Amino acid sequence: MKKLSLLLPAILCLTLLLAQQPTTNKQLAVQQTVVKLFDALSNRDSVSLKAYSTADITLYEYGHVWNIDTLILRAITGNQSADFKRTNNFEFIKTTVNKTTAWVTYRLQSLLFKDGKQTTVQWLETVVLVRERKQWKVKHLHSTLIKPS
């Protein structure tokens, strides 16, 4: 009985330590910047895309280094399908916020509809954001495509 009475508090303490901490307002603001960046991609809106990015953004996609012009060319200019639709679903894994820098790691699943075909694509991504004029902006984005198993 003594062993059980000692084990129960130990399990409770471990459970509390492993419990996910609530998301802070600062973390939510950073996460919303990421969501809005992808909303701009979904809406093929290059003006909003630039508003949520730094001028010198770097994107590491499919083994290549892209800048904002490459992203706009590949995701917006080169994507003129009339029936295009993209829906994004985020699973935020970790968000760290300092005064002027933030890091976010998340899983992204996008449902793409284009040229009459529907595709689901998944990535594991890490984003570094900086605070410019009281607004969070994406400075670096590293994306790893998750191949369906």
CATH topology: Nuclear Transport Factor 2, Chain: A
Q: What is the general shape? A: globular
Radius of gyration: 19 Å
For the record, the CATH class is Alpha Beta
| Biggest sheet record | 6 strands, mixed
Query: What pattern of helices and strands is seen along the backbone?
Result: HHHEEHEEEE
Chain-averaged pLDDT: 89
Helix content: 25-40%
> Termini distance?
47 Å
Word description of this protein:
The protein has one domain (24-146): Nuclear Transport Factor 2, Chain: A (Roll), CATH 3.10.450.50. 34% of the residues lie in helices and 45% in strands. The protein has 4 helices and 6 strands. Strands 2-1-6-5-4-3 form a 6-stranded mixed β-sheet.
Compact description:
This protein is an alpha+beta fold and 149 residues long. 34% of the residues lie in helices and 45% in strands.
From the structure above, extract its key features.
alpha+beta, 149 residues, 6-stranded mixed beta sheet, single chain
Topology (SSEs and partners):
Blueprint (H helix, E strand, L loop, with lengths): L1 H17 L6 H18 L3 H6 L1 E9 L2 E3 L1 H10 L7 E13 L3 E14 L2 E16 L2 E12 L3
Parallel strand pairs: 1-6
Antiparallel strand pairs: 1-2, 3-4, 4-5, 5-6
